[in-house]
Amino acid sequence: MGGYILKRLVSAIPVLFGITIIVFLIMSLIPGDPATAILGSYATPENVEKLNRDLGLDKPMVQRYFIWLGNMLQGDFGRSFSLNRPVLDEVLERFNATLILAGTAFVLCSVLGILAGVVSAARQYGLADKLITFVVLIGISVPSFFLGMMMILAFAVNLRWLPVSGMYAIYGGGDLPDLLRHLVMPALALAAVATGVVARLSRSAMLEVLRQDYIRTARAKGVPERRVILGHALRAAMVSIIPVLGIQAGFVLSGAVYIEIVFQWPGVGRMLVDAILKRDLLLVQGGVVFVAACYVMFNIAVDVAQSLLDPRIKT
Amino acid sequence: MTLLKWTRRGVMAAAAGALLSLGALPTPVTAQTPPGVLIVGQIAEPKSLDPAAVTAVNDFRILVNVYEGLTRYKSGTLEVEPALATSWDISEDGTEYTFTLRDGVSFHDGTPLNAEAVKFNFDRMLDENHPYHDTGPFPLSFFFGAVEKTEVVDEMTVKFTLNAPYAPFLSNLAYPTGLLVSPEAVKAHGKEFGRNPVGTGPFKFAEWRSNEAVVIERNDGYWGDKAGTQAVVFRPITDANTRVAEMLAGGIDLMVEVPPTSLGQFQGDGFSIAEQAGPHVWFLILNAKEGPFADKRVRQAANYAINKQAIVNDVLEGTATVAAGPTPPAFAWAYNEALDPYPYDPEKAKALIAEAGAEGAELTFYVTEGGSGMLDPVPMGTAIQADLQAVGFDVKIETYEWNTFLGEVNPGLEGKADMAEMAWMTNDPDTLPYLALRSEAWPDKGGFNSGYYSNPEVDKLLEEARVATDQARRAELYKQMQTIVQDDAPWVFVANWKQNAVTNDRVENFGLEPSFLLHLQGVVKN
Question: Does the beta-carbon distance from A30 to B25 stay under 8 Å?
Answer without folding.
Answer: no
